[in-house]
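<amino_acid_chain>
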Amino acid sequence: MPWYLVWALPFVAIGRPRALAPVVLVATAWLVIGGLPQLPGILHSFGYFPTRLPTGLANHNEFVRLLQ
């Protein structure tokens, strides 16, 4: 699960080689922001609706089908 990776990433950022620090910071931010429950509302407020794209609509329809 991605959240298990989040606690380890800061330790990688302070270790050696230092070249990994920017990559680790971006990965940590990506995982934290992606896990926010408010993310759909934030995306919609910026006018981004993933289900309006063909791939997003297919993913949504499959998700709904699996829940039924």
User: Anything to note?
Assistant: The chain is about 70% helix and 0% strand. The mean pLDDT is 84.
